[in-house]
Design goal:
By secondary structure, the chain is an alpha/beta fold. It has 2 domains: about 160 residues, Response regulator (Rossmann fold, 3-Layer(aba) Sandwich), CATH 3.40.50.2300; about 140 residues, 3-Layer(aba) Sandwich (Rossmann fold). The chain is built from 11 helices and 15 strands. Helix 3 crosses helix 11 and helix 8 packs across helix 9. It is elongated, with a radius of gyration of 27 Å.
């Protein structure tokens, strides 16, 4: 009997040890190289396949926004999401409100929008959020509490000085000394209510006062409301009012070609006046070839448009992000998320699903590199 009892106890010990060994196996075999954060991200990320995003530009028919849509559609096919390009040929608050209503009515999962006004769309976008639609912005922002993430081409402290320094290079090429001469200049863009463009203007002005205090602003900024015809007429009025102006900075993809066309209409070239700003390479190549300007800049708007849609779909699929995260976007690479105050001083950033996604780089286009770009 005792032998039987001893045998049973021994068997129980063997089974218990075996059970403990099985329980401890996962911990013992966990890879020491894998960080907890990386493992959690890999394990918890939800697929964005099947998501539908309303992709809303400031206006359709503009080379910048059409290129952004081309990029969004290209990557959407790879990611397995649907991107609905929804917009109006007119850059107006009224038209964008109508398009947002259409997106809500169609029951999209998310909205990615480039806003024509910094605050006028807030209430409508909050309405979309209340109905379970994720809202992200790209290119031009709204109030941070009316969206989740903003996909930004760069902070104002980067883009404002970039605009000025492109002008400095071109001025120097035609024999001016920007550090000593009283350069007469003015800004020409869409309108003061467009948050991104206005922030670049403000930062650019601060940079000019610091680096080039001898420069003279001949006027407050001129606005052409992203209207291609108006950008030419406003451009001509600048040249007529200030025939001795040295530099015009057009931080808007409609104002820049319009201003160049105005100069061409007046028989002026890059030898007579310096014009620079932001626009797609395809939108400006003819003016480069004609000698109207020598350089301008931008970023890859196709990548920016795609990222706006990706992050909107990413959050709509149930994923969570926070400022400080780096998200690896398939086909594009790592994207850093920073706090909202990187765009608007003093702005707050909620703990999750809010912040600014930064594009990694910008490009300055000249005759030496223009052939490398096809958007």
């Amino acid at each position: 009997m005792k032998k039987m009892l001893a045998l049973m106890l021994a068997l129980c010990m063997v089974f218990a040890l075996a059970a403990c060994a099985k329980t401890s196996t996962p911990t013992a075999s966990a890879s020491p190289e894998a960080s907890p954060a990386a493992s959690a991200a890999a394990g918890e990320a939800k697929s964005i396949e099947g998501m539908t995003v309303a992709f809303i530009p400031k206006l359709t028919g503009n080379s910048f926004f059409e290129a952004a849509n081309d990029g969004a559609q290209k990557y959407a096919a790879d990611w397995g999401i649907t991107v609905k390009y929804m917009g109006s040929a007119t850059a107006s608050v009224t038209d964008q409100l109508t398009v947002i209503d259409q997106a809500i009515a169609e029951g999209v999962d998310a909205i990615a929008i480039s806003s024509v006004d910094a605050t006028a769309l807030d209430e409508k976008l909050k309405e979309a959020q209340e109905q379970g639609i994720v809202v992200c912005t790209w290119d031009s922002d709204v109030s941070s509490d009316a969206r989740s993430l903003m996909v930004s081409q760069g902070t104002a402290s980067v883009l404002g000085p970039m605009l000025v320094e492109m002008g400095v290079k071109s001025l120097t090429e035609r024999g001016k000394d920007p550090t000593k001469d009283a350069i007469k200049y003015v800004w020409h863009y869409s309108q003061a209510t467009v948050a991104d463009q206005n922030s670049w203007y403000v930062a650019g002005e601060e940079y000019i006062k610091e680096k080039y205090p001898n420069w003279v602003a001949v006027s407050d900024p001129f606005y052409s409301e992203q209207d291609s015809q108006k950008s030419v007429s406003v451009g001509e009025s600048i040249l007529e009012a200030y025939p001795d102006i040295d530099l015009i900075i057009c931080n808007d993809s409609t104002a820049l070609p319009g201003q160049c066309q105005a100069a061409q209409n007046k028989g002026l070239s890059a030898k007579d006046i310096t014009i620079t700003g932001f626009c797609t390479p395809s939108g400006m190549k003819s003016y480069l070839d004609a000698g109207i300007l020598t350089r301008w800049g931008l970023w890859d708007c196709g990548i920016q448009g795609a990222l706006g849609c990706y992050f909107a779909a990413y959050l709509a699929a149930g994923n969570t992000v926070k400022a400080g995260d780096t998200v690896n976007v398939p086909g594009i690479g790592d994207c850093q998320i920073v706090t909202n105050d990187q765009l608007v001083a003093g702005d707050t950033t909620p703990e999750t699903n809010s912040g600014v996604v930064l594009l990694p780089e910008r490009v300055e286009f000249t005759k030496d590199n223009i052939a490398q770009y096809n958007f």
